[in-house]
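Bumping with the actual sequence this time:
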Amino acid sequence: MTPQLARQLARYNAWMNDKLYTHAEALGEEGRRLERGAFFGSIHATLAHLLKADRAWLNRFTDAGHQLTPPDDFPALRAARQALDADILAFAASLTPDWLGEEMDWTSVFTGISRRQPRWLLVAHMFNHQTHHRGQVTALLMQAGIDPGVNDLQALPADAFAER
């Protein structure tokens, strides 16, 4: 993981979240909350999990103090996602090779397990986790008859969330 890659992944993250929230909005409340047999059940629950997990990682990395519990209504969830994506973009812009090269002691707020791991690995995990669950949302949208389109990293438009 390099600062440059983290910045690119943060832009990709924000771009994909915007696309998926736009497509999920078209399903309406009932369609977003419908149990679809995914790990978190519904599209809404999967998006809420992603927000919660990303807030937890950003809190670990920056002491940001984000509340972990996601909003329950979709417009508030989307607004929280957009705000968090802006925070992730700012975090990625601040990264240095030295910071990424250090180890970090952390305790999971979900399991209580404490670990010491390289920061580069944990930042890579945060972005990988996002991609994993967005892939689930993409599949659920396709099953609901909504094609979210191309979602490959190299398809990120050059001007999407351009580096400042």
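The tokens above came from a reply further down the thread. The CA atoms of residues 56 and 110 lie 9 Å apart.
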